[in-house]
Amino acid sequence: STTAAGETYELDDEGRSTAKLWIDEFLILGKGSLPVILAYTLQSSLSAGSTLVVGRLSPEALATAAFSYMFAVCTAWLIALGGTTALDTLASSSYTGSKNPHDLGILLQRGIIVLTVLYVPIAILWACSAPVFRLLGQEEYLCVQSAQFLTALIPGGLGYIYFEAMKKFLQAQGKLTCLLLINLVTKFDKK
After folding, report:
1. Which of 166, 152, 11 has the alpha carbon at shortest distance from 80?
2. Most CB atoms closer than 10 Å: which of 8, 70, 165, 184?
3. Distance between CA 62 and CA 58 in Å, rounded?
4. How far apart are CA 37 and CA 114, in angstroms?
5. Radius of gyration of the chain (CA)
6. Alpha carbon of 166 to those of 130, 156, 171, 180, 182: distances in Å?
C-alpha cells in the first residue's frame, strides 16, 4: 500500500503465504532503502573518482590525494559523521514525539552551529598541516602537496558538514528521495 512519510504499512496477511509476505516486506524495505543506498554511493564517489583521476597523473599525485583524503577522513569527516549521528537520533525522536513542529528545525540549526564550531580548529590544522606531516616523518613533497590539497579542501569540508546535517534532517522526516536528487544535481552539475 502507498503511504506518506511517517505512516505505517498495514499488510493484509490473512490467506497469504509466508513467502508472499516476505516478498512484500522485502519490496517495502527495498523501496525505502534504494534512495539512501544510491545517495551514499554518489556521495562516496567524489573522493574515489578524484583519487582515480589523480592517480593517472603520477604516483606522487596519487600518494598526495590518498594521504590527504585519509587525513581529512580521520580529522573532519569522522567528527561530522559522529555529530550528525547524534543529530539523527535527536531529530528522529523530535519528529515523531514533539508537539512543536519547529523543534526539528531548531535541532538542525544547533547541530550546524556546533559542528561549525568544531570544524574551525580542524580547518586551522588543515591550513597548517605541513609541519604536522613533517613530525609524522612524511616525505617533503607529500608534506607540502598534502597541505595545499587540504587547504583547498577547507570550504568543501564545511559544505560536507552542512550536507550531513541536512541529510539527517531530511531522513528524520522520511524524505529520502530528496537526498538522491541533491546528490545527483551536485554530482552531475558542472557549470
Report:
1. 166
2. 165
3. 6
4. 27
5. 21
6. 32, 15, 8, 13, 11
**Are residues 16 and 22 in contact, defined by beta-carbon separation less than 8 angstroms?**
no
Predicted TM-score of the model (pTM): 0.72
Distance, CA of 180 to CA of 153 (rounded, Å): 23
Mean confidence (pLDDT) of the chain: 83
Q: What's CA 21's distance to the chain center, in Å?
A: 33
- pLDDT tens digits, 58-103: 889 989 988 998 999 899 888 888 888 888 888 888 877 777 778 8
The cell for 3 is 503511504
Q: Which residues contact 103 (CB under 8 A, 6 or more apart)?
A: 94
Look up cell 547541530; give the residue.
111
Distances from the Cα of 80 to the Cα of 44, 69, 183, angstroms:
15, 15, 18
